[in-house]
Amino acid sequence: MQNEKDEYKVHVKGETGEVVCKIIIIGDGGVGKTSLLxxxxxxxxxxxxxxxxGVNISKQNVHHKGKDYNLLIWDLAGQPQxxxxxxxxxxxxxxxxxxxxxxxxxxxxxxxxxHKELVKYNLKDIPIILVGNKTDLKKERKIxxxxxxxxxxxxxxxxxxxxxxLDGNHVNAVFEKITEMIAENRK
Length: 187
Fold this sequence. Notes:
Blueprint: H1 4-7, E1 12-13, E2 19-26, H2 33-42, E3 55-64, E4 67-76, H3 86-90, E5 95-101, H4 105-109, H5 111-120, E6 128-133, H6 145-155, E7 159-163, H7 171-186
Parallel strand pairs: 2-4, 2-5, 5-6, 6-7
Antiparallel strand pairs: 1-2, 3-4
């Protein structure tokens, strides 16, 4: 019998035998979700801010411990006008990256709201990584690591990275870790 947790899993074998996994990236608008993804997929950074409309889906093939993973990464718009679409976008997710901007206190405070949404849609038991972005803006930084550590404890999130989509700091590490967590969760 299938339990509620399993109904959301999408692990499918692709044409060449790779495992297809859906990762969603959530967080307030302007925190750098699209920039992080663009840096990971294309090793590029755009200086102009163009908000995501609805969702942007990217694909990346990775090899982890002898298996091929086809990551379908869903970059969800963080603006309130798109919140009604989130339930549809969350369906089938295998992992979540929740992002905030290290220079914007409100985006950090809103992590609790994003996490509540995951709980509401029964996604709290899949791998979740918390990411504080924009480490390159050292002088404007408002969120320090102990604050993130405290939030992780409150929300029962075990993995945290601080990244810079501009200079690439820890960007690949986030996706390597989420792939590792997905593989572990499949066992």
